[in-house]
Design goal:
Helix content: over 70%
Strand content: under 5%
Distance between the termini: 58 Å
Number of strands: 0
Structural class: mainly alpha
Length: 251
């Protein structure tokens, strides 16, 4: 456990080679003495290090190897987080069916333990997989459910990510200007606040910007992007729930 903690410290001080070497040493000890907890922590850290250094296949292997041990001790939260990581990695490897399945399992686990904080993320990942499968009705439903959860928590980054995911739906449906408006809002916030989003969301944002520029032409694209930058998050989110506005006006 000490070696794993040291590996994490090396990773946080931007020394990935030392982080990997130290954590692999921890893993070897954990395997030798059959220490389940030590094994899980080492594999999880190795998966995380590999993910953030773009070794996606290696990261998948580490996270997959940790699952049997996690299930052995019955830690459903850790299993949910691991499956959420795998949904990201399989998305990045463009294996969208497996990504969606991992996200679905993750969501079910968080539901089973009543963890509402973690539920919106796998819903969004399931949405991305549904987009790739051509099922826009399911995709939009999943992403809107994720948006509701993020809005209830006041999670700004989560709401922005959901708008980006909805933007992918809008592009497929031909509503490119609306997609670029979402992209403008998200990009402006991320730059101003020096924030970032999970890799699938950043890739989706890049996709919206590339397609928007190609489809709209420079002048209209710039105009729409500026419109998005000056929009308010709460206004764009509220537009996705017109039935709520109707209920409010009825009362």
């Amino acid at each position: 456990m000490a070696l794993t903690s040291l590996g994490r410290a090396y990773e946080e001080t931007s020394e990935p080679e030392r982080a990997l070497a130290t954590t692999k040493e921890a893993l070897a000890i954990a395997e030798q003495i059959e220490d389940t907890w030590g094994l899980i922590h080492a594999l999880q850290l190795l998966g995380t290090i590999s993910r953030f250094h773009f070794d996606y296949d290696v990261a998948i292997d580490y996270f997959e190897r940790s699952l049997p041990a996690i299930r052995l001790i019955g830690d459903r939260y850790a299993e949910g987080i691991t499956l959420a990581n795998l949904s990201i990695l399989y998305n990045l490897r463009e294996n969208y069916p497996v990504s969606g399945h991992a996200a679905e399992q993750s969501f079910a686990l968080f539901q089973s333990i009543g963890d509402e904080v973690q539920q919106p993320f796998p819903l969004r990942m399931m949405g991305y997989s549904a987009i790739q499968a051509g099922n826009l009705v399911r995709a939009r439903s999943l992403i809107l459910e994720s948006l509701k959860g993020n809005r209830a928590q006041g999670h700004i980054l989560g709401q922005l990510a959901c708008l980006i995911a909805l933007g992918r739906c809008e592009v497929v449906e031909g509503n490119v200007r609306r997609a670029v408006t979402f992209a403008g809002l998200a990009e402006n916030y991320l730059q101003k606040e020096s924030q970032t989003l999970p890799e699938p969301d950043m890739m989706a944002l890049d996709h919206l910007l590339i397609v928007g520029k190609k489809k709209l032409g420079k002048n209209l694209f710039d105009q729409t992007l500026t419109q998005g930058e000056s929009s308010r998050l709460e206004d764009l989110v509220a537009q996705e729930f017109p039935s709520e506005a109707q209920v409010s006006s009825d009362h």
